[in-house]
Each structure stands twice: as structure tokens, then as C-alpha cells.
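Figure 6 in text form: structure in, sequence out.
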């Protein structure tokens, strides 16, 4: 009579746990491995190989983790010392974010076929805030491409280059008003100082923002680079520092008010660009802007009164 096969010995549970924990949490794998070897020695259970494998892998992982930790501490100390070395020093430049990173520039100028061919300045229901005759109508020259002008204020001079090649009807209007003395002895009534809009607004004899010459005229560049129904007309574009642009209350409502843009500004392309401001003018504007607004907000009357004494074509 045969006695049969002997019953297989059970596998030690902690030996299995040691191998599993070696890949999950190595220190626990080490603990389970040593305990399981001790139990196997007493009980004769299976699993010694599993326990030994768990111990080896756990020790390897633990050693690796210690090396990584030591390396990280060394790096942190080195970075900390570098920052201490830089503490108290100043850089050679200052970065001032003034517009969104994805700000789109104004579109490339492509002369419309009708550029300067029929400038019109129809009367408005509101009378002129100061006596002024409308500019000549019809075709106006686009040459010379640039026309020099200067604004003398009680805060300093502002030199301009009027862009006759891009916005001839607008330059025609500005030149006409300047020659009539329309801007003389008027105040710049509005200053904005937000990160995305930095302008000094002038050209209203009433100083209220509601005055005008008694007529209006259509937009030119950059508006004429878009279809009027183009959704892109509503997306702000970057009007760079040093831009001279018309202020308005909507398309086709240009009159006498204008923006002196002293900081990169975000505006929809519905404000006609008709020139640039020179370095001297920007320095004057920077001083005015630094004084802030009278009410301390980022949009209001300049804290320092700004009076245009005379505008002349050079």
C-alpha cells in the first residue's frame, strides 16, 4: 500500500509581501524580507527565494533613492548659494509687461485703390466747439509721404511725423486745423495709464471729450485693411509706443481729437494711425504720465494740466 505524495509546504506570506513591496516601498520590503527569513527558518515554509529576491531588490531601490536624495540636496544648496550671490544686485534693464504675449501687430499697409482720391468731411449735428472750416475735399496728395509737425505744450515739445502716404485724408484734416489755430490754447483732457492702454488724449477745445470741429470723416489705416464685416475688426491690435492716432466714438466719427500713445497699447483697428511721435515728444509724454491722473485712477484728467500752446507744420 502506497503512502501517497506528501502535502506541499505553504509559502510564507511575508516573503511574497517582501517581493511586492520591493517595487512599491523598498524599506517595507526590507523589513518583510528579514521577518520572513526568520519565520521560514523556524517553520520550514517555502518562500526563501522570494524573500531573498525581495531583500536584494529593496536594498538596490533604497540605495538608489538615497543617492537621488543626496543629489537633490546638493543641487538645492548650490541654487540657494547662487541666489544669495545675486541678492542685492541690479540688472541692466527692466522688463515691463505692457501687452499680452500673443498681441498681434497692426496689419501690413496695402494702399487701397481709392486712397486719398475723395476725402469728404460732412457736417455733424453738433456745432463746432471752436470756429473751424472743413479741409479741402476731393483728391488730396499722398506726397510727400511724411509731413513734419510739432506741438508746443506747457510741459514740453512734441515732435510729429504725419504719415501722409497711409492716411492722407486724416493728415489733410490735422494740417488744416493746425493752420487755422484750432488746437492752440486747448487742453489735453484725458490720460490713461493702464498696462494695456497708455495715451494722452487731446484736440477738444472744450476739454470735456465731447467737442469737435463740426464735421466728421471716415477712418483710414488700419481700418481700411479690413472688410467692415470682418470679425477681426473687433480684436485688439498692438498700437506701438510713439503712435499718433485719431480718437473717435465709432467708425466714421473722426473729428479733431487724437491720441498721443506713449506706451504699447491694445486697441481694435478702428482708430486711424496718421503719424509717429519723436523721442523728445515721448520724453515729454513720459513725464506727464508719471504724474498720473488728478483723481488717482488709471483713466482721467492729467494731474498736471497739459495745455497745447500751438501746433504748427514744420
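Output sequence:
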Amino acid at each position: 500500500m502506497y503512502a501517497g505524495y506528501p502535502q506541499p509546504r505553504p509559502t510564507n506570506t511575508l516573503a511574497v509581501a517582501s517581493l511586492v513591496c520591493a517595487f512599491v516601498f523598498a524599506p517595507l520590503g526590507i523589513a518583510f524580507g528579514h521577518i520572513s527569513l526568520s519565520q521560514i527558518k523556524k517553520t520550514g515554509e517555502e518562500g526563501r527565494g522570494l524573500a531573498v529576491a525581495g531583500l536584494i531588490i529593496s536594498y538596490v531601490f533604497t540605495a538608489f533613492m538615497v543617492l537621488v536624495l543626496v543629489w537633490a540636496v546638493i543641487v538645492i544648496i548650490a541654487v540657494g548659494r547662487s541666489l544669495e550671490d545675486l541678492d542685492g544686485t541690479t540688472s541692466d534693464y527692466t522688463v515691463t509687461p505692457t501687452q499680452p504675449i500673443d498681441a498681434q501687430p497692426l496689419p501690413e499697409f496695402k494702399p487701397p485703390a481709392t486712397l486719398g482720391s475723395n476725402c469728404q468731411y460732412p457736417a455733424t449735428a453738433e456745432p463746432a466747439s471752436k470756429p473751424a472750416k472743413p479741409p479741402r475735399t476731393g483728391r488730396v496728395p499722398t506726397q510727400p509721404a511724411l509731413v513734419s509737425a510739432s506741438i508746443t505744450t506747457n510741459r514740453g515739445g512734441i515732435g510729429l511725423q504725419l504719415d501722409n502716404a497711409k492716411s492722407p485724408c486724416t493728415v489733410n484734416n490735422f494740417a488744416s486745423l493746425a493752420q487755422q489755430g484750432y488746437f492752440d490754447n486747448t487742453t489735453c483732457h484725458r490720460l490713461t495709464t493702464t498696462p494695456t492702454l497708455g495715451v494722452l488724449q487731446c484736440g477738444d477745445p472744450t476739454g470735456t471729450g465731447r467737442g469737435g470741429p463740426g464735421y466728421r470723416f471716415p477712418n483710414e489705416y488700419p481700418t481700411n485693411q479690413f472688410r467692415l464685416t470682418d470679425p477681426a475688426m473687433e480684436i485688439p491690435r498692438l498700437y506701438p509706443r510713439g503712435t499718433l492716432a485719431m480718437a473717435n466714438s465709432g467708425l466714421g466719427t473722426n473729428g479733431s481729437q487724437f491720441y498721443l500713445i506713449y506706451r504699447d497699447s491694445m486697441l481694435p483697428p478702428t482708430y486711424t494711425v496718421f503719424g509717429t511721435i519723436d523721442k523728445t515728444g515721448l520724453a515729454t509724454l513720459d513725464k506727464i504720465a508719471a504724474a498720473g491722473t488728478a483723481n488717482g485712477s488709471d483713466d482721467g484728467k492729467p494731474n498736471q494740466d497739459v495745455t497745447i500752446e500751438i501746433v504748427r507744420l514744420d
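Caption detail: The chain has two domains: 13-85, 146-313.
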